[in-house]
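Hi support team,

I submitted a single chain yesterday and got back a structure, but I'm not sure I'm reading the token output correctly. Could someone confirm the output below corresponds to the sequence I sent? I've pasted both exactly as they appear in my results page.

Thanks,
R.
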Amino acid sequence: MGTARKLFRLFKSFNEYVKIQTIRKGKLPDFEKNLQILARLAFLCYWFFDNLAVLVKVKFLTSFELKQMSRRAAKCWLAGIWLSILVALIELYKASTKQSQLLLSKAN
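Hi R., thanks for writing in. Yes, this is the structure output for that exact sequence:
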């Protein structure tokens, strides 16, 4: 049952590609844009290796090892999570700075 559920996730990497294209067209500073793109690329790799693991598990592909694909997927997921946390912290810092500037301008 779990494997059948995973078959519905086979093309999730295309969603990440679309998100990367959207980020590229955005108006963020280069550092933040590159960081977000790296995070999305990590998740794209996660979905790719996860898809390979599913295809190995259902014996559609026989030339790869399930454990190796699962391990690579997990590493990519971890990298994506860490990069996303870093992006969120930067956004939080920017919001905090903007709020403090607004409070200072109201005080004057």
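A quick pointer for reading it: The chain has a mean pLDDT of 89. Let us know if anything else looks off.

Best,
Support desk
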